[in-house]
Amino acid sequence: MNKINVGKNLSTFPGHRIMLFTVLSLFIFLMFVMSGCTKSQLADGDGDTELDELIWYYPQNKANADLQLVNAEVNRLIADKIHTSVKLQPVDFASYEQKLNTLVAASDTMDIVWTSSWLFPWDTNARKGVFQPLDELLARYGQKLQASMSSRFWNDGKLDGKQLAVPNYQIAAMRPSLVIQKRFVDKYKLDLSAIRKIDDIEPFLKQVKEGEPGIVPFGTTRGFFTNHIYGIDWRVSVYQRDSTNRVLPDVTPEMRQNFAMVNAWYDKGYINQDAATLKNAADVYNKGNTAVWFDFTGKPGSEAEFKAGDGGFDVVLVPLAKPSFTGAVSSMNAISRTSKHPDKAMQLLELVNTDKQLYNTLVYGIEGKHYTRSGGNYVKLISDSGYFTNTDWVFGNIRNEYLPEGAPADKIEQTVRINEEAEVSPYYDFVFQTEDLKAELANVKAVNDEYYAALATGTVDPVKYLPVYEERLNKAGSERIRAEKQRQLDDWLKTKGKK
Q1: Which residues face 89 on adjacent strands?
Q2: Could you give the CA distance from residue 463 to residue 256 in angstroms, rounded to a whole number?
Q3: pLDDT single digits (tens) 424-460
Q4: What span, in angstroms and rounded, lies between the C-alpha atoms of 219 and 178?
């Protein structure tokens, strides 16, 4: 039918049929257009569109009643910027690794996954293919994010030359410290400058035990032995500045010394009786009834975080060693291989790390409901408000954060300075390959699971149980692991021209 005939035929239609034909044509056209728009159906009658949803798993100290309110605010902040929503899935620290292992085994859909060197280990999971390579995603969707940190940080998220995790810029140095409630420091006139090694705190613990009923003098969970405060390199178990580069056995003289001291403290009632079974470090001090505890990191500004977490009591931090650069592996976010929207996941990670309002919403919640601005860059938390994380380092770049009340005004500057000035281990680039030691490592882990916490917290007598522990370690293959690490270290030193 040519155009003329069409016109003639239409001219013979009654008016209402022309109208019907027009309406039907418009309807078909609209249906065609809408069918080509992915997830663009109208929602809730408010003109908004349905968004791609991301799922983000990360650890938290406790459940928050207002999580959904904060989640909704986060989605409001990101909807127009990346046309995406996110479902926040915090899991308590004690259950995080087990939960994530279950999700990975089931190949469940996840988009962003928090990982680290100490919980849900990033290198192990990276080698298993749990995370997606990020190089192309960063180049396309994360240019601002990539520019926000130096290669010193990015290198820690690389494996075999591929970027597999996004570092969270935070304290990247370890400065083992004692945390002490200030009210007891003042009451007993403790000279903080006299505390240079951990043994020096014992007279103070005795005073607290005798003078403060109901107060735990020293709180710990699964012990606090760390090579760093005994002059042993944190990266490889070698005495610092030992020209022979001899890898030490699992049980060193320093460990024996520490276990004996802790057992004496335990017997005197200085240490919490449930130290060997507590899994969450915050459980040591979150009731405000612990005078002293050990903090492996000793980051600037942590006094304010501890105060918020221990019932509102002021604390002081007493470093026991110079800071050592440990890198970014203590807190990173990766994109899961099961992600349906890796491009949007990268866009969200860039926003979290570069958008101050979004980052602080994740950290502190909603202004006016969970916190108030208290002048300058400070915030005042509203107690029992329904949202409290105390884990700014989980989400992203702490240089974007508001400072909690009580934090030093130069907290961020201190953090950056320590990161830049911290001593770097001479073995920092050494990577111990363990593929041929899986059985031995599993067996040693089983022995540690059975004995270590009880010994490290002083719960059992080291005179009786340390020999048993050592014998079981040897049978499990600890010496073979040590010898293989020594062999690989020697080869690495040769390639570096250091041996």
Answers
A1: 57
A2: 9
A3: 999 988 988 888 999 999 999 999 999 999 999 999 9
A4: 11
Tell me which residue of 363, 377, 381, 392 sits closest to 70, measured CA to CA.
363
For residue 181, what is the DSSP state? E
Listed in order, strand segments (DSSP E) in 50-192 are 52-60, 84-92, 112-115, 158-159, 162-163, 166-167, 173-174, 177-181
- Asked whether 250 and 482 are in contact (CB, 8 A), the reply is yes
Distance CA 243, CA 499 (A): 9
β-strand 52-60 against 112-115: which pairing, if any?
A: parallel
Q: Helix (H, G, I), strand (E, B), or coil: what is residue 187?
A: helix
Question: SS3 of 325, please?
Answer: strand
pLDDT in tens, 256-314: 999 999 999 999 999 999 999 987 778 888 889 999 999 998 988 889 888 887 888 99
Nearest to 318 by CA among 480, 146, 180: 180
- Which residues in 93-167 belong to E strands, given as ranges? 112-115, 158-159, 162-163, 166-167
In angstroms, how far is CA 400 from the centroid of its own chain? 17
pLDDT for the residue 49: 65
Rounded to two decimals, the pTM is 0.73
Nearest CA-CA partner of 192 in 291, 322, 321, 317:
317
Length of the chain in terms of residues written = 499
Q: What percent helix, strand, coil does the chain show, rounded to 5? A: 45, 15, 35
